[in-house]
Amino acid sequence: MSALTSFKRSSTLARSAYSAVRTYATAEPTLKQRLAEILPEKAEEVKQLKKEHGKTVIGEVLLEQAYGGMRGIKGLVWEGSVLDPIEGIRFRGRTIPDIQKELPKAPGGEEPLPEALFWLLLTGEVPSEAQTRALSEEFAARSALPKHVEEIIDRSPSHLHPMAQFSIAVTALESESQFAKAYAKGVNKADYWKYTYEDSIDLLAKLPNIAAKIYRNVFHDGKLPAAIDSKLDYGANLANLLGFGGNKEFVELMRLYLTIHSDHEGGNVSAHTTHLVGSALSSPFLSLAAGLNGLAGPLHGRANQEVLEWLFKLKEELKGDISKEAIEKYLWETLNAGRVVPGYGHAVLRKTDPRYTAQREFALKHMPDYDLFKLVSNIYEVAPGVLTKHGKTKNPWPNVDSHSGVLLQYYGLTEESFYTVLFGVSRAFGVLPQLILDRGIGMPIERPKSFSTEKYIELVKNIKGN
């Protein structure tokens, strides 16, 4: 077969797949149709806000914030979620218990569906069950990977960290970017969001196949035990591809995991990086890949892997004695040695992370006697008091990372270096809606002002008048 013939055949197949997507409709508006209705009003709201209040001072910047990672500086627009230090995360105004109650579930299911959360984050509205089902089918229809992406994953050495492989594969999908192709042809700015939307749906649709292929290559025989099933939801398909679809509880865990890890305001590294790169009009594929590279860091998404490693070390050194007294002694030894307690503390939160609470409640329901869960529970009862007495931690309460690995371990997904990949699949559900909205309301390229230390010294002297 010639290269031209092969190209024409691929194009025909792509068009056929794209047309097939459009058959999954309901009597209600599709997500893209509803977004097209919402965006003009949202763009006008932003325009009027800037016109009427653009000169309003919304905060002040301290020198220590400039040198402290811009902590707490109000300077980003993020529609999907807001993180309150006391209340915790709210998705479009809804708490995690709210979305567990309000978002559509799979037939007979217990946990909310991540595709329903995607709809909520993008529109601010809770979709109907029919709309959620149609979106599930659309993801399934777009899930196939290009041949060259499959080959890139298969050629990656097994010792290359799964997150590095994940980022490489997502970057390689740039070949499929409708936005990049439309931009090269000179598309009107008003239509940027439409191509960004299509890329985002394509990208989300393909992530389960990418993640599962990496997992099966690195840790198993390289063969996927199942294929995407158009009759199943996103979480169920991911569980099947990984090889755990036969366990209904694990399927529910995937639905919960993908939902609660999706979004955590715009200032975290993965969210901010995706937004920043996207502001340069890079495609969703390149933007998310950049965000994934940030998520891979030990101070961000990789922390869940480090927590689990620490738990195993604690358990080994305590020789199985996980009493509260033994744990308290171990924690003090850790702190006095100048080390931190992994999984405790958060840059913004000043209470127990609601995502931790959701996972704890899941564990109490499905694995109350699991020894690793008992260990985490005992740490939860001891650590806040120790950290408070120690006095060097602003938030002595657990964050999401201190629990997620325990749940995965229980169901047999024991390869902790893969955990951040699951986090990355979930985080895509949170950052891509904002990328679409950025293009829909015409957000500009991000370009804050920076100074050298010498210039800051001069600035401070001038302000203080000496």
TrEMBL record:
One of its GO terms (cellular component) is mitochondrial matrix. Signal peptide: none annotated. The active site is at residues 300, 346, 401. InterPro entries: Citrate_synthase, Citrate_synthase_AS, Citrate_synthase_euk. It holds the Pfam family Citrate_synt. Keywords: Transferase. GO terms for molecular function: acyltransferase activity, acyl groups converted into alkyl on transfer. GO terms for biological process: carbohydrate metabolic process; citrate metabolic process; tricarboxylic acid cycle. PANTHER family: CITRATE SYNTHASE (PTHR11739), CITRATE SYNTHASE, MITOCHONDRIAL (PTHR11739:SF8). Belongs to the citrate synthase family. This is CIT1.
